[in-house]
Amino acid sequence: DAGITQSPRHKVTETGTPVTLRCHQTENHRYMYWYRQDPGHGLRLIHYSYGVKDTDKGEVSDGYSVSRSKTEDFLLTLESATSSQTSVYFCAISESGVITEAFFGQGTRLTVV
Amino acid sequence: GEDVEQSLFLSVREGDSSVINCTYTDSSSTYLYWYKQEPGAGLQLLTYIFSNMDMKQDQRLTVLLNKKDKHLSLRIADTQTGDSAIYFCAESRDQTGANNLFFGTGTRLTVIP
Q1: Distance of alpha carbon B14 from alpha carbon A95, whole angstroms
Q2: pLDDT tens digits for A13-43?
Q3: Which chain B residues are closer than 8 Å to A1 by Cβ?
Q4: Do A99 and B98 touch (CB under 8 A)?
Q5: CB-CB contact of A9 with A106 (8 Å)
Q6: How far is CA B71 from CA A19, B54, B61, in A?
Q7: What was the pLDDT predicted at A2?
Q8: For the segment A35-74, what is each residue's pLDDT rounded down to a tens digit?
Q9: Which residue in chain A has the smallest CA separation from B91?
């Protein structure tokens, strides 16, 4: 899948614990995105990055932070997980930011109990 | 966006045509997309259409756009069991960033052998 690896693929965590999801790419693409997918909502953008150390908020950024210290890794952190953050999280990458060139990872299923 | 609606489920028999519908509310949407999500996989871009087009055909896929009614459809001819997946429509005002991409709720297509 275009050199995108999400880890972990599945995680169960307790409310109030910190959680970090990793998106790793081998394509050297500039743009990286984090989405969440929930029933009845499609995919919604959480945060995105347009370069190392350059990030911006998406539609549903509350409760999430991101970091990109190197081109290949984009980390999504839930500082204190809540049940409302139970979801499937997708990472996407794009070389130039053009939508038709975006590739999506396989997703991480996170359950907060 | 940002309200993009789809029916949740569709079942068809193998060999029949499938028609998946989508309505959107943003009249400034310029590009409309169809993505396919197979089980355990990320989203795959199937096709897209620019808003000044009424129709686009690509092998078994036909996209119809009624801009007046803000209605988009995807027709899959000779539907196969491998077409079973969730199909998302999405819209954007331009192509310059997946951060500007808004997804529908997804339609789960089940193909009955």
Answers
A1: 37
A2: 999 999 999 999 999 999 999 999 998 788 8
A3: 41-42
A4: yes
A5: yes
A6: 40, 11, 17
A7: 64
A8: 999 987 888 999 999 999 999 999 899 999 999 999 999 9
A9: A99
Contact B2 A59 (CB under 8 A): yes
Q: Does B106 touch chain A (CB under 8 A)?
A: yes
Closest CA to A1 of B93, B101, B42, B12: B42
Residue A69 Cα, gap to closest chain B Cα (Å) = 20
Q: Specify the length of chain A in residues.
A: 113
Alpha helix positions (H), chain B: none
Nearest CA to CA, how far is B12 from chain A (Å)? 22
For residue A84, give both structure tokens.
């409302």
Distance between CA B10 and CA A83 in Å, rounded?
30
Which residue do the tokens 């999506």 mark? A104
Query: Does A1 contact B41 at a Cβ distance shorter than 8 Å?
Result: yes
